[in-house]
Design goal:
Largest interface: A-B, 48 and 38 residues
Shape of chain B: elongated
Strand order of the largest sheet of chain B: 2-3-4-5-8-9-7-6
Largest sheet of chain B: 8 strands, mixed, barrel
Helix content of chain B: 25-40%
Number of strands of chain A: 0
Distance between the termini of chain B: 90 Å
CATH class of the largest domain in chain B: Mainly Beta
Order of helices and strands of chain B: HEEEHEEEEEEE
Number of helices of chain B: 2
Number of domains of chain B: 2
Oligomer: heterodimer
Distance between the termini of chain A: 26 Å
CATH architecture of the largest domain in chain B: Beta Barrel
Number of helices of chain A: 9
CATH topology of the largest domain in chain B: Sortase, Chain: A
Structural class of chain A: mainly alpha
Strand content of chain A: under 5%
Radius of gyration of chain B: 33 Å
Number of strands of chain B: 10
Largest sheet of chain A: none
Radius of gyration of chain A: 29 Å
Strand content of chain B: 25-35%
């Protein structure tokens, strides 16, 4: 009896460990999947920017910064009104994102902006009959305006993680597959080696529901703390963009956690039916 | 007695079964979840300080403010006496209007801000935050755009009076000289000076289109206004 008891206890411990490993695999698998479909996915960033007010806000910000430069350079307030085209900004940001995910050097091509600025300046000088023009001062102004535009197009902090994202996208996909296979293998082991199938289902239920709870609690805590709104970026467009991205990531976590919990409940229902059948 | 014992046992069994079911359905997942948190926390402990440092770099205590409006703490004062207590001075923070600056008949009459960033220079003249406010007995370095609020500096002559009004006192400075210098010439002002002096500067040449590489300086010495006392007490 004692031997049997010991055997049973060891088996139970083994099943508990397998359940725990299954829960860990589900958590890490879910987190890696979220990373893969968000930060490690070029179209995610483009879609987020398109669906938000990012381009509109960015145009307003660039215009304000250029207007300040205009103030310091003797240009009328009206000079930069409507100067920054949303189409141009959109194209330049999109090509920046493409370069980012293709691993190309992150440079903003300002040739279109520079050309429009030179044309606008020529027109302004001609229309206002300005004679006090120094080529060097004008060149300095144009270079600074171009730098303001180029810095605004760049997505701050992103350049720092370009190498990590470009070099590890494949690794992430492989990890997802490996974790999915491990999870499936553990489920099979639990079902095949367990004489009482309903007990195997209960272990799977525990792993699914605890992983679901884990993934639910984290984003709820982050949302409740309000920490997302405290991102230290002095640009409204960028701050809104990062808030939008982080909110999407956390919402994805909640969705996955709900899916896990729903699947867990379904497994529980099956478990009770199987147990009843076994009892009969 | 026997009859009443049977249903009780059955009810007890049902209750036990229900509690066991509840334990497996609710308690076990919650406990495993807590265990998962504990294990993941233990694994990540060596990296937590790094995460915390990176997080604190990107986060601030309050939500960032993107408003372009500024706060005005200036209320006219009639104190033109010799002293003002430090505790009576409402020290301005960056981008706040704390006074006005005026030069009679020279076309300079503007709001005075603390700091010389975008907000101050959009709306008036700004005191460089690394210098001092009036009454400190040190250098006050003020900048403004040459095409807007400081365009009138081109008319300033030696002997002109510059009036600065703040909530804690009214100050007068007499212009001693003007100077044209390169933008990066740091010898044009002395922030460690022991006497109160006002240095106003703007881009030069005036009314030129573009960003110029020279600056026009106007120097003035204090002639009246309350000294702030008890600063270091």
């Amino acid at each position: 009896m004692k031997k049997l008891f010991k055997k049973l206890s060891l088996k139970k411990v083994l099943y508990a460990v397998l359940t725990f490993i299954l829960a860990l695999c589900l958590i890490f698998g879910s987190l890696i999947t979220i990373l893969r479909i968000t930060f490690f996915n070029g179209s995610f960033l483009s879609d987020t920017l398109n669906s938000s007010q990012y381009y509109n806000d960015l145009c307003v910000e660039i215009a304000e910064n250029l207007s300040d430069l205009g103030d310091a350079s003797g240009l009328d307030k009206s000079f930069f009104e409507g100067f920054v085209s949303e189409v141009l900004v959109r194209d330049d940001v999109q090509s920046y994102i493409t370069d980012f995910y293709e691993g190309n050097p992150l440079k903003v091509n300002t040739s279109n902006f520079d050309e429009s600025l030179q044309n606008a300046l020529k027109k302004y000088i001609k229309t206002n009959h300005i004679k006090n023009v120094n080529d060097e001062s004008l060149e300095y102004f144009s270079a600074k305006a171009s730098r303001i535009y180029s810095n605004s197009i760049k997505i701050k902090y992103f350049s720092a993680v370009q190498d990590i994202i470009v070099n590890n996208t494949g690794l992430l996909t492989s990890l997802i597959v490996v974790l999915a296979l491990i999870s499936a293998a553990i489920c099979v082991i639990l079902i095949v080696t367990n004489a009482w199938k309903h007990k195997a289902l209960r272990y799977i239920y525990t792993a699914l529901s605890s992983a679901g709870l884990f993934l639910l609690i984290l984003p709820i805590c982050v949302f409740a703390s309000g920490v997302i709104g405290h991102i230290a970026i002095m640009s409204r467009s960028l701050s809104d963009m990062y808030i939008s991205i982080l909110s999407t990531v956390l919402s994805d976590m909640i969705v996955i956690s709900i899916v896990l919990i729903v699947v867990a409940v379904a497994v529980w229902v099956i478990h009770t039916r199987v147990r009843k059948k076994s009892a009969v | 007695m026997k009859k009443s014992k049977k249903p009780n046992t059955r009810a007890l069994k049902r209750r036990k079964k229900f509690l066991r079911g509840l334990r497996h359905f609710l308690l076990t997942p919650v406990l495993v979840c807590l265990l998962l948190f504990a294990v993941i926390f233990a694994i990540s402990t060596p990296f937590l300080s790094d995460f915390y440092s990176i997080g604190s770099m990107f986060l601030q205590d309050s939500e960032p403010v993107y408003s372009h409006t500024y706060e005005n703490i200036f209320t006219p004062s009639d104190n033109s006496g010799d002293t003002v207590n430090a505790e009576d001075v409402d020290y301005p923070s960056i981008d706040k209007q704390f006074g006005t600056l005026e030069i009679d008949n020279r076309g300079v009459d503007t709001k005075l801000f603390f700091g010389d960033g975008y907000v101050p220079l959009r709306n008036g003249a700004g005191v460089y935050a690394g210098s001092f406010i009036p009454g400190y007995g040190k250098t006050i370095l003020v900048s403004g755009h040459n095409n807007t609020y400081f365009n009138g500096l081109k008319n300033v002559k030696k002997g002109d009076i510059v009036k600065i009004r703040t909530s804690y006192g009214n100050y007068k400075y007499r212009v001693t000289k003007t100077l044209i210098a390169d933008a990066d010439d740091k010898s044009t002002y002395d922030l460690s000076a022991d006497k109160e002096n006002l240095v106003m500067y703007t881009c030069y040449p005036f009314d030129e289109l573009g960003l110029t590489e020279q600056r026009f300086f106007v120097y003035a010495d204090k002639i009246s206004g309350p000294q702030i006392v008890g600063i270091y007490e």
